[in-house]
Write a structure and sequence with these properties.
Blueprint: H1 7-18, H2 23-41, H3 43-51, E1 54-56, E2 59-61, H4 66-75, H5 94-128, H6 131-143, E3 146-151, E4 167-171, E5 174-185, E6 194-201, E7 214-219, E8 221-223, E9 229-232, E10 235-240, E11 251-256, E12 262-267, H7 273-309, E13 311-314, E14 323-325, H8 330-361, H9 365-397, H10 408-416, H11 425-438, H12 443-457, H13 465-488, H14 493-498, H15 500-528, H16 535-552, H17 555-565, H18 567-572
Parallel strand pairs: 3-6
Antiparallel strand pairs: 1-2, 4-5, 5-11, 5-12, 6-7, 7-12, 8-9, 10-11, 13-14
Helix pairs in contact: 1-8, 2-5, 3-5, 5-6, 5-7, 5-8, 7-8, 7-9, 7-10, 8-9, 8-15, 8-16, 9-10, 9-11, 9-15, 11-15, 12-13, 12-15, 13-15, 13-16, 13-17, 15-16, 15-17
């Protein structure tokens, strides 16, 4: 099954909605990335899923073709796209890298997970590592000849990192690390010559809970002062997880210290490890949200292709007509439009947040506040959308969607992990409610809503009436919920937690509608200017925005009811209700 990067929509968002500069350079990068995604990565998606990563006596092999693809990926400089030029990176804006990353994840999510984790490790070391650590590790990691991981979870800990029990014992200028980590994406593989693990562990005198966690860099192979590789470190892959999807991506169980202690080096200060790890985690959360957009796009393309070719039945309301492709049937058209609208809204929102991250790095505090507010929304809403979109894609295929050969089932299996990666949707929602709304008294959320309302007020013309009304209704619902969270959270956090996921989904739907409104305003202006070369694309933008207004935004009122009143039944529930 083929994949073609949605270049026109990506360019529309980058150039028309974001205003990215140096359009010619950016377009050249996008063209080459689209070619690489289609010709190198996409052909390995189904074969890699079928073959899977393989474990044997502690060593892990990736599927056939992955090593050659990764060598080409590194040689093309793709790993270094948005990295700091001081360490060999190209220094391109985050928003441009996000567009390229979408192509990687859409063409082959299992492959793209490796560079995603590496870039998170690069960011953490860049901001928290010593100058010696940066000089020793970052050039090879930026180039991609070494990869990176983050090691958080343990069998007894799960998402509760306060329960981490991995130990780090001082030993001269380093530490010896003992413990086990699970769910480590690309924790062992044969793509690169070294793997740099960033590991959460406790020193002997550390306090209990999250305040006693430190961060250590623990390479698979020790690194000599001149940058050459030394002896194998005391870290071993004891097994790979057997998963629902992303079979080509090795998810490792790692054992540290079975032969005397894995040598590790403290990153930053003791007992600040969770703070440092959140640097990686925040970027990874954004990256996983982008995965949701990508999987949605891939499922959409497959569904459109199948619906355009599958001939079945006559057209509704046409007497004596011939058999037609199922794309002509109203319900199939509804499903495809829903997939398209949610994917385009998610893309625009994700790229908007990426642009805010770029502005934040330039010192814009307001942009940082907006990005912090919206990252859990991008992560939670876009990944929940991905599961729904991929499931709808299976439905469009009918019985053939349940057959692995079409590839539709793989998209659903692969999408399912995205709502769990880097904190479940519930964790993202609690972060949104507690840290991003209640903690600052709703200031960032209200500022975002005000910006959205300003866009809604600019919608005019007959075709924009429904969109304006639906967006204003959704924003009113969101505003009521934000006010309720601010007023309620301190006194009754259980009530706000009960409505947290509906609030996250409501926020995503409203923010997606905001982006669709921005797109519609631009499309209408360009049509008025006589841009006939793009007429079909621009009319599709208006039509998709109209569908979003009629089918997606009205869900806001129901979600608002669940936020405001959903705790009542939960408060009544007893444990015995769940007994078999």
């Amino acid at each position: 099954m083929t994949y073609a990067a949605p270049q026109r929509d990506i360019r529309f968002v980058l150039h028309e909605m974001i205003g990215v500069e140096e359009a010619a350079l950016v377009d050249a990068i996008l063209d080459e990335a689209a070619r690489f995604a289609a010709e190198v990565l996409a052909p390995l998606n189904q074969s890699g899923d079928a073959e899977g990563a393989r474990w044997r006596e502690g060593s892990v092999s990736v599927p056939d073709g992955f090593r050659d693809a990764y060598d080409k990926f590194v040689a093309g400089g793709w790993n270094a796209l948005a990295c700091d030029p001081a360490h060999g990176g190209q220094g391109l804006p985050t928003v441009v890298a996000a567009a390229v990353d979408e192509m990687w994840h859409a063409s082959n999510m299992a492959f793209a997970l490796c560079p995603l984790l590496t870039r998170g490790a690069i960011e953490a070391l860049s901001l928290c590592g010593t100058e010696a650590q940066k000089a020793l590790y970052l050039p090879k990691m930026v180039e991609g000849v070494w990869t990176g991981t983050m090691n958080l979870t343990e069998p007894q800990a799960g998402s509760d990192l306060s329960a981490v029990r991995t130990r780090a014992v001082p030993d001269g200028d380093h530490y010896r690390v003992f413990g086990q980590k699970i769910f480590i994406t690309y924790g062992e593989h044969d793509l690169a010559e070294n793997i740099v693990h960033l590991v959460l562990a406790r020193t002997p005198d550390a306090p209990e809970g999250v305040k006693g966690i430190s961060l250590f860099v623990v390479p698979k192979y020790l690194v000599n002062p001149d940058g050459t590789l030394g002896a194998r470190n005391d870290v071993r892959c004891v097994s790979l997880e057997h998963k629902l999807g992303i079979h080509a991506s090795p998810t490792a169980v790692l054992a540290y210290g079975d032969a005397g202690g894995a040598i590790g080096y403290l990153v930053g200060e003791e007992n600040r490890g969770l703070e440092y790890m959140f640097i990686m985690m925040n970027l990874a959360r954004f990256g996983v949200g982008l995965e949701g957009v990508a999987i949605g796009e891939r499922a959409l393309q497959a569904a459109i292709s199948y619906a355009s070719e599958r001939v079945q039945g006559t057209e509704t309301g046409v007497r004596g007509g011939g058999r037609v492709p199922i794309i002509r049937h109203p319900d199939v058209r509804r499903m495809l439009m829903d997939m398209k609208a949610r994917t385009e809204a998610g893309r625009a929102l994700a790229y908007f947040v990426a642009a805010k991250l770029d502005a934040a790095r330039a010192g814009d505090a307001a942009a940082q506040a907006t990005a912090d507010l919206l990252i859990p929304v991008v992560k939670g809403w876009c990944t929940e959308n991905a599961v729904e979109i991929a499931s709808t894609g299976v439905q469009v295929h009918g019985g053939m969607g349940f057959i692995e050969e079409t590839g539709a089932a793989q998209h659903l299996r692969d999408a399912r992990i995205t709502t769990i990666y880097e904190g479940t949707t519930g964790i993202q929602a609690n972060d949104l409610v507690g840290r991003k709304i209640a903690r600052d008294g709703g200031r960032a959320a209200r500022a975002a809503i005000a910006e959205m309302r300003a866009v809604a007020s600019r919608l005019d013309g007959e075709e924009a009436t429904a969109l304006r009304a639906a967006l204003e209704d959704a924003l009113s619902a969101l505003s009521r919920c934000v006010d309720w969270v601010v007023a309620t959270h301190a006194a009754d956090p259980r009530a706000t937690a009960a409505g947290a996921v509906p609030l996250l989904k409501l926020f995503g739907i409203a923010a997606g509608g905001w982006q669709m409104a921005r797109a519609a305003i631009i499309a209408r202006r360009k049509l008025a200017e006589g841009d006939n070369a793009e007429r079909d694309f621009l009319m599709a933008k208006l039509g998709t925005a109209g569908f979003y207004a009629d089918h997606v935004l009205p869900q806001a009122s129901g979600l608002a009811h669940a936020v405001l009143h959903g705790a009542r039944a939960l408060a009544m529930a007893e444990d015995s209700w769940f007994a078999s």
